[in-house]
Design a protein that fits this description.
Strand content: over 45%
Oligomer: single chain
Radius of gyration: 31 Å
Number of helices: 3
Length: 239
């Protein structure tokens, strides 16, 4: 009975030597941009993926970028004698980049806006050459307000698999920058006067390393040799 047990241990050791016991895992690093009024510039340092002497294998890198906006307003006064109409936009833009690691273009430029169609009459006799709001203006004026925080606009890009995972591997670090700006736009005629109030913003950059840990060959070899040694010792005792 003991002989069978020892042989079983040896067999398990040999099986362990011949098969893979690699395990998959993830490392997640996040850059969080809290509530702010753009324009702002943020930089965060991320750790590169350490291969631990080749026993950790980087399978892929996935990246997600997020931009949020709420609040603010945008108003337009038409000083043309002709009516004009178009889509008005109010929000925030963000540019994400790194001097050390190549990010996918789809991740690096985000725009989060609220929109409204403006139908503006020709000037109604209010002073020309300056912005005029009601009650001075009338049908030649319109405005757009951003949502409250609960209804904020959230734009997410990703997760996207990095095309150059080698940029993220090593024992050092790399920097990621996050720059945001106020954004307003109206696609109507020229000679328009406008006023805007700052929108708020928040955002995130998430980088995930998907990797596999493989056993060191020398460890598995010692395990197999130990099992064989036990088997040989048992055989000598029973001889």
């Amino acid at each position: 009975m003991r002989m069978a047990t020892v042989m079983g241990l040896a067999a398990l050791a040999l099986v362990g030597f011949g098969t893979s016991v690699a395990s998959a895992d993830v490392i997640t690093q996040t850059m969080t941009v809290g509530s702010n009024y753009p324009p702002n510039h943020y930089v965060q340092t991320f750790n590169k993926f350490d291969t631990h002497g080749g026993t950790w294998v980087l399978d892929s890198v996935t990246i997600t970028t997020v931009l949020e906006t709420w609040g603010g307003y945008y108003a337009v006064d038409n000083d043309n004698t002709s009516a004009t109409s178009g889509e008005a936009y109010r929000g925030v833009s963000a540019t994400i980049g790194s001097p050390d690691a190549r990010l996918a273009p789809v991740l690096t430029s985000l725009l989060a806006t609220t929109s409204k169609t403006f139908n503006l009459a020709g000037t109604v006799g209010d002073p020309v050459g300056a912005y005029n709001a009601p009650p001075v203006s009338g049908a030649d004026w319109d405005s757009l307000s951003g949502p409250a925080y609960a209804g904020r606009v959230i734009v997410t890009s990703g997760p996207v698999v990095a095309s150059f995972p080698g940029d993220f591997a090593g024992t050092g670090t790399f920097d990621v920058s996050y720059d945001n700006l106020q954004y307003v736009n109206f696609s109507g005629l020229g000679n328009l006067w406008s006023e805007s109030g700052a929108a708020q913003s928040a955002g995130k950059v998430e980088i995930v390393y998907n990797y596999t840990v493989t056993p060191e060959p020398v460890t598995m070899a010692f395990l197999a040799m130990g099992g064989i040694g036990l088997l040989a010792a048992r055989r000598r005792k029973t001889a």
